[in-house]
Specification:
The chain is mostly helical and 211 residues long. The protein folds into two domains: 72 residues; 117 residues, Methane Monooxygenase Hydroxylase, Chain G, domain 1. 65% of the residues lie in helices and 4% in strands. The chain is built from seven helices and three strands, in the order ααααβααββα. The protein is flat and about 95 Å long. About 6% of the residues have low confidence.
Length: 211
Amino acid sequence: FYLFIYFFQERIRVGKELLEAKRMEEENERKRIMALRKAEKEEEKRAREKIRQKLEEDKAERRRRLGLPPEDPSTAKPAAPVVEEKKSSLPIRPATKTEQMRECLRSLKQNHKEDDAKVKRAFQTLLTFVGNVARNPDEEKYRKIRLTNQSFQDRVGSFKGGIEFLELCEFERVEGSEFLFLPRDKVDMAVLNSAGSELDSAIKNPFFGVL
């Protein structure tokens, strides 16, 4: 009888732990999605601001060509130097790994913006590498990339920022070897999930890397 009670209580305890683990997982996923959406909105905002500035420059150029005087600056929207001063007084926060990944991808796209199709293919290839490791962390073949492989060079290696992104995912250059390798004990699911989210955003967000 006591044994039955013990097992019954144990099942309740395990059930509660599973529910709590599921709740935490859902909460983390919700936070990840919110952070991703925020990053996409910021990217879109920066892109729109760049477009607005370009329109202003074009407008000023048209006035110059027509022989019109420059637009009265007093009619323009006043700048907000106070905000900038306030920002500059804040302590500089070191970039998180996710921010480094985003900047790496943005830099890759800007450095190769003349070939959008190849950039997208590079992002998709990186997403495949990351996804394979996340799904099969114990499979060494997914944690090992031959740098001299022609397909890898065509898709990722020849792009400035491609290998750097993999290194942010904990891949390491093996000294005296032609491989990038991710040791099993350095497989970090949180890092891989962040990498996957950033790549997914870079692929789907039309404003990504505009600035």
